């Protein structure tokens, strides 16, 4: 890693010996102790550290669960009950992992909205942002496959519905979609074979994710952090060393987050799940409402907004394909945000119109989430279609146009000015 | 923005029209709201009431066990802390006399005798509490095609669905989260067991079915299992359907979540630790940052 030099000097002979051969301590010192962090960061900047914590927690609890779990259609459901009842503190480890997935998503969504609000996706942080989108996709794949593992009714039917999405490709090339779906399933329906491969991938992907997280942090340390005023670091007084300043704040954020986490683990472990997942998977009984985990609901709403017609436009046989494209598109569109946004100013703090667009967008995501939890019928479909349009309009229309027409508020000259008021820079 | 407001006003109307319509359909089937019960184990503070769990087990044993198994609960669990905590010796005897014995191979490695009947032995403390049927087929054959589900996790596998206006939905959710409300399962079970009524005039109940206000669809194949006075409690609790239903629902809540007491007790300590540490860290952070300004 480069971007910042290190003043690390080993004190012991052992330290010197090591430093001449693999200067990892030098690097860590430079990147995580002396590293300059903007002095105006607020608590939304603690979510990166919180996400690291979530990742480590998922891997540690996951590895322990895997010691007691059995990825087979006849044994999986019993294995989870075995963990909950017979393994020492198994209930706790299982709750940590299941609740942890939700906490991971709460943290990542806050992290992403933080980025959208303060313009963290803009130059020079495009690669950093895109790596973030890759992380989100990997998280989604991991969580989706993890949810299949307890082999309850929602596991089974959720897997069936989502894998079946690929069959929409049949409208592009007859038989293509079906072939892909059967290849994913390893058969003609979701079965123990599917469960076994999902377990394999569920174990693998978090480590791929870890690799991408390392790249993400690397990219971060090249460009440095954005900040609530969206200004570049211009002078030494604009930043403070990461340790002890940013680290002290990160710990407050992490522990505050752990309060929420523990509240769910110990008092509401099943609140975020679905009761149907305590009924063993049964291919012959379809649950009345198949709903994914809460963190997929906005995307699920977009998928299902494409019924036979969309806001009066008939879609015919392409409805399903359109839905699938829109659903994946709703995440992929994030990749283009750095180029869709035409404003030179990063932070919404200084962007009076964009700020509004942002809050409308945030409301839209919540509304889509709510609609995703309801059956796709009647007015719900109509509203899902309206909000789908607003969702995409935020990126494709609001971002480019607002940047052109908006007059940003005057920016402070520097971060130091923003924190201490103008004129303070002279004193500092 | 103005457009958005009028749009949401329109949606409000549309939604209320829709919920109004579904409400009307429900009243035709004599729907009654599933009411939240004051469980001893409710919320983030609640713990199981041992005497209630003991009575609840008695109801299960004397009534429900005729049709339903409890295969993920082991006899030994009945003597463990956090549950009904029957004396171990009593549980050992109970297991030995449990009518549904444990299938077992004989010394020759055979599972069944000449006539096809399974070899079985009496249950031990370490054995699961089996129901009367060996498999779903046998259960359906005995119950007119209906399947009495195993009750081990039924309290977690059921919940209560609330029809509320979208605008109050987030506040109710927040309220539930702050209270630690997780008792939808037992609330439903209690409503189910006390929900047998005469069907409304416009409903014809199918052959072998019973009308029930709580069951989705309102007709189920389980005949009303409880009646006043059918079970004699030892501790002077009134022998009413209401009490039986309450006690067996609490027992099933424990069966589905045997670590609840321990979980919450650990939870309090964890919360206390986290709150104190967060506050300390916050003041530590303020001290560190105060040098800057
Ligand atoms: C990116 C990190 C991870 C995420 C987001 C994640 C997510 C999930 C989810 C949503 C479930 C279903 C929980 C439930 O309803 O019970 C699950 C289950 C499971 N996961 Fe993970 N997981 C992650 C990492 C891991 C790792 C690294 C392992 C193993 C090395 C693992 C092993 C398991 C096992 C064995 C289960 C089944 C047990 C259960 O359902 O409680 N997970 N995971």
Between the first and last Cα atoms of chain B, what is the distance in angstroms?
41 Å
Assembly level: heterodimer
Q: What is the level-2 CATH architecture name of chain A?
A: Up-down Bundle
Low-confidence spans of chain A: pLDDT under 50, at least 5 residues? none
What fold name stands as the CATH topology of chain A? Answer: Cytochrome Bc1 Complex, Chain C
What does it look like?
Chain A has 428 residues and is an all-alpha fold. Chain A has one domain: Cytochrome Bc1 Complex, Chain C. Chain A has 17 helices and four strands. Chain A has helices at residues 13-21, 24-32, 47-68, 76-85, 90-118, 126-148, 153-164, 176-185, 192-223, 242-267, 297-304, 319-332, 337-340, 352-372, 379-405, 415-420, 424-427; strands at 36-38, 239-241, 309-310, 313-314. In chain A, the strands form two sheets. Chain A has a two-stranded antiparallel sheet with strand order 1-2. The radius of gyration of chain A is 24 Å and the shape is globular. The model of chain A has no long low-confidence stretch (mean pLDDT 95). Chain B has 293 residues and is mainly α. Chain B folds into two domains: 26-68 and 152-259, Cytochrome Bc1 Complex, Chain D, domain 2; 70-130, no CATH class. In chain B, 44% of the residues lie in helices and 5% in strands. Chain B has nine helices and six strands; from the N terminus they run H-H-E-H-E-E-E-H-H-H-H-E-E-H-H. Chain B has a two-stranded antiparallel sheet with strand order 1-4. In chain B, strands 2-3 form a two-stranded antiparallel ribbon. The longest helix of chain B is centred in the C-terminal third of the chain and has 31 residues, at 260-290. Chain B is globular and about 90 Å long. Chains A and B meet through helix 4, helix 5, helix 10, helix 14 and helix 15 of A and helix 1, helix 6 and helix 9 of B. The structure holds protoporphyrin IX containing FE (HEM). Protoporphyrin IX containing FE is lined by residues 58-59, 62-63, 65-66, 69, 80, 94, 97-98, 101, 104, 139, 142-143, 146-147, 149-150, 202-203, 206, 209, 273 of chain A.
């Amino acid at each position: 890693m480069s971007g910042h030099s290190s003043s690390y000097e080993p004190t012991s002979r052992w330290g010197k010996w090591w430093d001449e051969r693999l200067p990892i301590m030098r690097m860590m010192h430079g990147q995580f102790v002396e590293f300059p962090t903007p002095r105006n960061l607020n608590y939304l900047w603690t979510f990166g550290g919180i996400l690291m914590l979530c990742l480590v927690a998922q891997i540690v609890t996951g590895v322990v669960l895997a010691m007691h779990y059995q990825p087979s259609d006849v044994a999986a459901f019993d294995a989870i009950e075995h963990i909950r009842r017979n393994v020492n503190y198994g209930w706790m480890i299982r709750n940590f992992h299941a609740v942890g997935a939700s906490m991971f998503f709460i943290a990542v969504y806050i992290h992403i909205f933080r980025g959208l609000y303060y313009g963290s996706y803009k130059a020079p942080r495009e690669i950093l942002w895109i790596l973030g989108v890759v992380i989100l996709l990997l998280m989604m794949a991991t969580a989706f496959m993890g949810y299949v593992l307890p082999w309850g009714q929602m596991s089974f039917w959720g897997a069936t519905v989502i894998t079946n999405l690929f069959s929409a490709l049949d409208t592009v090339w007859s038989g293509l979609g079906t072939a892909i779906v059967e290849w994913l399933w390893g058969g003609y329906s979701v079965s123990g074979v599917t469960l076994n491969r999902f377990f394999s991938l569920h174990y693998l992907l978090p480590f791929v994710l870890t690799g991408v997280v390392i790249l993400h942090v690397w990219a971060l340390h090249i460009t440095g952090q954005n900040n609530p005023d969206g200004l570049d670091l211009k002078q030494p007084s604009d930043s403070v060393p990461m340790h002890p300043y940013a680290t002290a704040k990160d710990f407050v954020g992490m522990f505050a987050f752990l309060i929420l986490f523990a509240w769910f683990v110990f008092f509401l472990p099943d609140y975020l799940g679905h009761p149907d997942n305590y009924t063993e998977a049964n291919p012959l009984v379809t649950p009345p409402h198949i709903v994914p985990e809460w963190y997929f609901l906005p995307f699920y709403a977009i998928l299902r907004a494409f019924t036979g017609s969309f806001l009066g436009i008939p879609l015919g046989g392409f409805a399903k394909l359109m839905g699938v494209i829109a659903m994946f598109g709703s995440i992929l569109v994030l990749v283009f945000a750095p180029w869709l946004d035409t404003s030179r100013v990063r932070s919404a703090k200084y962007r009076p119109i964009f700020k509004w667009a942002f809050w409308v967008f945030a409301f839209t995501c919540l509304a889509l989430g709510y609609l995703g939890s309801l059956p796709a019928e009647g007015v719900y479909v109509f509203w899902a279609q309206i909000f789908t349009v607003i969702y995409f309009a935020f990126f494709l229309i609001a971002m480019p146009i607002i940047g052109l027409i908006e007059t940003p508020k005057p920016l402070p000259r520097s971060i130091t000015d923003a924190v201490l008021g103008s004129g303070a820079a002279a004193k500092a | 923005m103005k457009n958005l407001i009028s749009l949401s006003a329109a949606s409000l109307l549309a939604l209320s029209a829709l919920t109004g319509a579904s409400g009307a359909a429900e009243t035709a089937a004599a729907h009654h709201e599933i009411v939240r019960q004051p469980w001893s184990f409710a919320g983030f503070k609640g713990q199981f009431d041992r005497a209630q769990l003991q009575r609840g087990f008695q109801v299960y044993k004397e009534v429900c066990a005729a049709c339903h198994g409890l295969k993920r609960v082991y006899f030994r669990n009945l003597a463990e802390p956090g549950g009904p905590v029957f004396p171990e010796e009593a549980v050992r005897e109970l297991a030995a006399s449990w009518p549904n014995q444990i299938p077992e191979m004989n010394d020759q490695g055979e599972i069944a005798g000449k006539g096809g009947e399974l070899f079985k032995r009496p249950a031990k403390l370490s054995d699961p509490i089996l129901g009367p049927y060996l498999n779903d087929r046998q259960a359906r054959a005995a119950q007119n095609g209906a399947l009495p589900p195993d009750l081990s996790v039924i309290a977690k596998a059921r919940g209560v669905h609330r029809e509320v206006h979208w605008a109050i939905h987030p506040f109710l959710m927040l309220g539930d989260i702050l209270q630690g409300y997780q008792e939808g399962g037992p609330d439903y079970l209690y409503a189910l067991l006390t929900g047998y009524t005469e069907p409304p005039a416009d409903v014809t109940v199918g052959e072998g079915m019973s009308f029930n206000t709580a069951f989705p669809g309102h007709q189920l194949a389980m005949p009303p299992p409880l009646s006043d006075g059918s079970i004699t409690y030892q501790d002077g609790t009134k022998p009413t359907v209401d009490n039986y239903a309450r006690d067996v629902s609490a027992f099933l809540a424990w069966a589905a979540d045997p670590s609840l007491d321990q979980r919450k007790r650990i939870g309090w300590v964890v919360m206390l630790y986290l709150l104190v540490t967060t506050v300390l860290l916050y003041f530590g952070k303020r001290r560190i940052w105060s040098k800057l300004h």
